[in-house]
Amino acid sequence: MTPRLRRFVLTAHIIFSVGWLGAVAVFLAHAIAGLTSEDAQIVRAAYLAMGLSVWFVIVPSNIGALLTGLIQSLGTQWGLFKHYWILVKFLLTIVGTILLLAHTQPISYMAGVASERLISNTELLGLRVQLVADAAAALLLLLATTILSVYKPWGMTAHGLRKQGGENTERPANRKSWGLYVLAAFILLILLFVIVHLMGGGIGSH
Ligand code: HEM
């Protein structure tokens, strides 16, 4: 890609990906209000807003982040499988996309109920708790991808080194940073949560 095009795609990538993070933070606030508020009007408004934001902001941002990420990886010297930070981001984004698409239906269901009537405090509790847990997991996942994007840890993969045709002197330095082990543990925790959840063992098991 020409430098001008690369800057354009990078700008679009940051807008979509960090926009996705911001929209999920708002979605989490709505999910918590929908679960805990004593005011039936606020509960109703929260689920109506979640139904709108998932289709008009969160899903488009997710698709935009993934597509621009792939264009950047395949259109620059970064590659897709040459650097651990991009490979891990790619896997996390795929997991985030599966989690999101698996939940558009229950979110639309809650918004549908809210558009018809008020929701009592004890109604659909399992699903409402589920939506808070999923939004929190998605936010952690997006925080992890953003941190990875700025710190770019762990150096090159064996495939990347082969492509580069030699040993990468940078790698030993990265091995010492304990913070990045914490991030790795974080990522594994999120993946574990998602796998348990998608296998139907989630909190509310909708
Ligand atoms: C929600 C997920 C994502 C977030 C929050 C995110 C965030 C970012 C950010 C903030 C940057 C700028 C880093 C900098 O300039 O220092 C960046 C760059 C980059 N991202 Fe992502 N990203 C995400 C997903 C992806 C995916 C899925 C891929 C690959 C398939 C990807 C590939 C890249 C590449 C190659 C760059 C470097 C571009 C360049 O330097 O020109 N990203 N990302």
Detailed description of the structure:
- The protein is elongated.
- The chain is an all-alpha fold and 206 residues long.
- It has helices at residues 3-36, 40-75, 84-116, 125-151, 158-164, 171-175, 178-201.
- The chain has seven helices and no strands.
- Residues 167-172 and 202-206 have low confidence and may be disordered.
Labels describing this entry:
206 residues, elongated, binds protoporphyrin IX containing FE
Any chance you could write out the topology, listing elements then pairs?
Layout: H1 3-36, H2 40-75, H3 84-116, H4 125-151, H5 158-164, H6 171-175, H7 178-201
Helix pairs in contact: 1-2, 1-4, 2-3, 3-4, 3-7, 4-7
The structure holds protoporphyrin IX containing FE.
Protoporphyrin IX containing FE binds at residues 6, 10, 13-14, 17-18, 20-21, 65-66, 69-70, 72-73, 76, 78, 80, 86, 89-90, 93, 142, 145-146, 149-150.
